[in-house]
Amino acid sequence: MMSVESSILEYIKSLPEGIAKDIECLHRHILQHFPTKKLWFLDGKNEHGKVVSNPNIGYGICQLSKGKQKEFYQVGISATSTGISVYLMGVSDKTLLKQQFGSRLPHAQMSGYCVKIKHLYEMDWSAFNELLAFGFSLESRS
Question: Contact at 8 Å (CB) between 19 and 84?
Answer without folding.
Answer: yes
